[in-house]
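Open question from group meeting: does this chain pack into something compact, or does most of it stay loose? Before anyone orders reagents, we agreed to write out a predicted structure and look at it together. Recording both the input and the output here so the notebook holds the full record.
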Amino acid sequence: VKQYVVKLSTVRQEALSQANRQVIIIGCGSHEAIAHYKVMTSCPWPIYTDPKRELYHALDMTIETLDRTPPNEQRRSYLRKGFMENVLGSIWSGPLKKPLLIGKQGNISQLGGEFIFDS
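Structure tokens returned:
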């Protein structure tokens, strides 16, 4: 998730403004982690949390998995780090830097999604 948000944070604000769109991130962890997560990812967009995952379920985002990219598929472009580097980096930037946030990350197997809503 972190690598995806880092990549998403590179979207140019002026491009979104011209398209009359905005990016909003909704995570499934505790709200207590938002400030640290914004710094860690350089995320300029608003971040909200849904720890009970009610919105996730309402939008039918019910897939949970810790599976990596299958061998016959190309790894997503935003996944720049390998598995072990990602795991060790997550431990370093999470629990080791902010031990008070241990257990507040939400369901780590919850997959997300992207939606575009028109008003």
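Observations to bring back to the group:
The two ends are 27 Å apart (CA to CA).
Strands lie at 25-27, 47-49.
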